[in-house]
Amino acid sequence: MKTLLMSLLCIVCLLTSCTDDAPISNKPEGTLNFIVEKTNSAESGRLLSSDSLKSVLISIRDEKGVLVYDRLQIDLISFGGGYKIEPLALKAGNYQLIEFVALNKDGVATYAVPKEGSTLAHLVADPLPINFKIAANAITEVNVEVVKVEEDNKDLFGYTVLSFNIVKTFSFNIAVFTYNKLSQTFELSNANLIVKNGGSTIINQYLQNVTNKIYLKDQSGNYTLNVAKQGYAAHQRQFPLDELKQYANSPMVITLYPTSLTEGLEVYYPFSGNANDESGNQHHGTVYGATLVQDRNNNINSSYYFNGNSRIDLGNILDNLQYPFTFSSWVKLEDSNNIYNPVFTSQDNAPLYNGFDVNTNVSGVGIGYGDGYGENNPAYRRGKTVNSSIYGVWTHICGVVSGPNNIKLYINGKEVPGYYQGETQLPMASNFPNDIARIGQMTSNGVTYNFKGFIDEVKVWSRALSADEVPASM
Question: How many other CB atoms are there within 10 angstroms of residue 63's CB atom?
């Protein structure tokens, strides 16, 4: 029987738990690489790409016996005349490698690690299961030797290495950003990821402050992703399989917002695959003509495009709203002609000036409210406008209304000087049961105006955000 031994060096950089606040750095952590070599009396050196390996199957369980990876199939990549695999992530703790099989391009087992007690176990220094420990902020090296699988030894490994069902897998990339108050920018951050399919948890994995590649079983049904970090509101979204696979090459970008920004949050429409309200108040929207498209981060089906004759109705949801209040949203205007391109109105349908609305045009952004006493007369409204074009480029707009003479407008997190319009000094009126809130459309003085362009991340707070909170809400 011809036997070939091949030594694999597994390098595992360690991860901390999901509640740790690891400092942000540029050094990647949590990688798992295989450096492949072969040695025997006749031949030694690196396993060459001419050996025609295509992928590896690995199974790893934790110290509680829970399978972390169950025959996960990972493609091998030619590198420097040999092979490497994409990084894998593991939390700190104790583990066992319980299966390791290398496959050729036809999916046939070519090399495998024999199991302790099997006929071939004596050929390797450390047969399966192989114990290893992942310690925080350290590198663990695991030496693995495999035996070439041949016709006369295929039943001697202690487990089946030829006749098995390969678990079909796929991968996607994900990057998480949080706000850094000192630099006043969003930066890559660590977090924790839980992925479920059909109610069952597939993985519970630590994400590093880099772009993370995640491997999942390819199975029917929708995948639910939950990204969480201590001190920040969790992000949850459901993905069809085909949509999740589209992040194989470019990363899904997730922004986590401080939990302090949930205080007074009345509505939050992230437009992550639908028009649902994620504030917890269940004010879900009904879409008329608007279509899901990529957002500013190129995330798929993560913002809405309004074609100039579309809207999202939210119902009578803000009847009790008074100032102070805050509105914020990401917008990209496509219409250069209309004087009004309404992003949001809190009280549409009534002939009177009431509630508040946010409008844009090619040269400016404005927010205003009505006192509920009249129509078509500046005496019954009050607002502020800034000269700042949002035409053709994703722009974050935020209006903070604290009173008739205390209205602030922020563009991309920075307050911009503007000018007041309207004369009323009375409070905003909102209690109109027949009115509804709308995104992308508004009727004023009998004329209906429509927004044309892109809208994302619509939020309304029943309080005034501070100057520090506004950029953190972007």
Answer: 11
Closest residue by Cα to residue 318 from 139, 136, 459: 459
Q: Taking the CA atoms of the chain, what radius of gyration do you get in angstroms?
A: 29
Mean per-residue pLDDT of the chain: 84
d(CA 457, CA 267): 10
Query: Which of these, 100, 78, 108, 98, lies nearest to 147 by C-alpha position?
Result: 100
> The tokens of 98 are what?
């319980």
Structural domain of residue 323, as residue ranges?
Answer: 259-472
Instruction: Look up residue 262 and give its DSSP letter.
Output: G
Range list of β-strands (E), 221-340: 223-228, 235-239, 252-255, 265-269, 286-288, 291-293, 303-307, 311-315, 325-333
- Quickly list H helices, 313-444: none
String of DSSP letters for 97-141: EEEEEEEETTS-EEEEPPBTTSTTGGGSSSPBSEEEEE-TT-EEE
User: Which of 166, 181, 210 is at the close of a domain?
Assistant: 166
Whole-structure pTM value: 0.73
How far is it, in rounded angstroms, from Cα 372 to Cα 350? Answer: 9
Q: Please compute the mean of the pLDDT values over residues 26-49 and round it to a whole number.
A: 39
Which of 316, 305, 285, 324 lies closest to 407 in space, CA to CA?
A: 324
Burial of 274 from C-beta contacts in 10 A (0-12 / 13-18 / 19+):
middle
In CATH, what number is assigned to the domain containing residue 205?
Answer: 2.60.40.10
Indicate whether 352 and 464 sit together in one domain.
yes
pLDDT at 346: 95
Do 28 and 13 lie in a common domain? Answer: yes
- Do both 301 and 412 map to the same domain? yes
Asked if omega into 324 is within 30° of 0 (cis), the reply is yes
- Longest Cα–Cα distance of the chain, Å, equals 97
Burial of 258 (C-beta count, 10 Å sphere; 0-12/13-18/19+): middle
* φ, ψ for residue 400, nearest 5 deg: -115, 115
Same domain, 63 and 119: yes
Q: Contact, 209 vs 190, CB < 8 A? A: yes
Q: What CA–CA distance (Å, rounded) separates 276 from 339?
A: 29
- Domain tally for the chain? 3
- How far is CA 432 from its chain centroid? 38
- Look-up of token digits 């072969």: 38
Prior bond to 351 cis, omega within 30?
Answer: no
In this predicted model, what pLDDT tens digit does every residue of 100-124 receive, in sequence order? 888 887 788 888 889 999 988 887 7
Q: Which of these, 162, 169, 175, 156, lies nearest to 197 by C-alpha position?
A: 169
Instruction: Please say which residue of 166, 197, 232 terminates a domain.
Output: 166
